[in-house]
Amino acid sequence: MYTLPPSEYTFPNPMEVDPDGQGLICIGADLSPSTLYEAYSNGLFPWFSEGEPICWWSPEPRCVIRPQDYHPSKSLVRNMKKLDYKITINQAFDHVIRACALPRSYADETWISEEIMEGYCQLFDAGYAYSIEVWEENKIVGGLYGVTIGQGCFGESMFSTRTDVSKMAFYSLMLLGQENQLPWIDCQLVNDHLMSLGACTLSRQTYLNSLQDVIKQPPIDWKKYQDSVFSSKTIAQFSQLVE
């Protein structure tokens, strides 16, 4: 990890510019790693369609999941025990983000542009992003990526080409969060699926207050994980569920 140069941009306080809680805070800037770092440190993230100006969001309320509250499904645990996938951390960030950028079966377009991929890959090279990969033999079949600052862990996107493999990556992230006593993992926007997994909502002000504390804490030592290969069968043993 190295120190990023100061960002050219100063982001506004979301509470001051968006008192009605619409979520859109500002438009413009760029997607350099310094700008991304500054944005996440202030509770913002980029979300826009290709060809549109860069939009920075801070939703009200904020969706987070506390790792200790995560509840893997029984079917997921069974599949992890039955199908012996390999799981790694930070071994193929570029592959994961590019796979997340591919069109999905339910949508022809993606918001993850080349500009976004370049910015987050540079952020990863600087030590402020992470990925989790799921492998079937020598092929990546699922995974997720996000941003990490101090003890702040921010989820961005995931993908899968086999049943449940993105959920396996998510479960692995929850275990990593438990081991490192992370207070929450940011899920950004509320949806029913996340809530069914144990996510909750925080008011924007509560989230912003917590954020300023967690990003100042000692960061996760990602290097101690990135040379390891974990078995989905082994990870499934951590579940308290009984088949």
From TrEMBL:
Its main location: cytoplasm. It is found in: Cytoplasm. Pfam families: Leu_Phe_trans. One of its GO terms (molecular function) is leucyl-tRNA--protein transferase activity. Keywords: Acyltransferase, Cytoplasm, Transferase. It comes from the Bacteria. The keyword Cytoplasm applies. GO terms for cellular component: cytoplasm. It catalyses: L-phenylalanyl-tRNA(Phe) + an N-terminal L-alpha-aminoacyl-[protein] = an N-terminal L-phenylalanyl-L-alpha-aminoacyl-[protein] + tRNA(Phe); N-terminal L-lysyl-[protein] + L-leucyl-tRNA(Leu) = N-terminal L-leucyl-L-lysyl-[protein] + tRNA(Leu) + H(+); N-terminal L-arginyl-[protein] + L-leucyl-tRNA(Leu) = N-terminal L-leucyl-L-arginyl-[protein] + tRNA(Leu) + H(+). One of its GO terms (biological process) is protein catabolic process. Belongs to the L/F-transferase family. Functions in the N-end rule pathway of protein degradation where it conjugates Leu, Phe and, less efficiently, Met from aminoacyl-tRNAs to the N-termini of proteins containing an N-terminal arginine or lysine. This is Leucyl/phenylalanyl-tRNA--protein transferase.
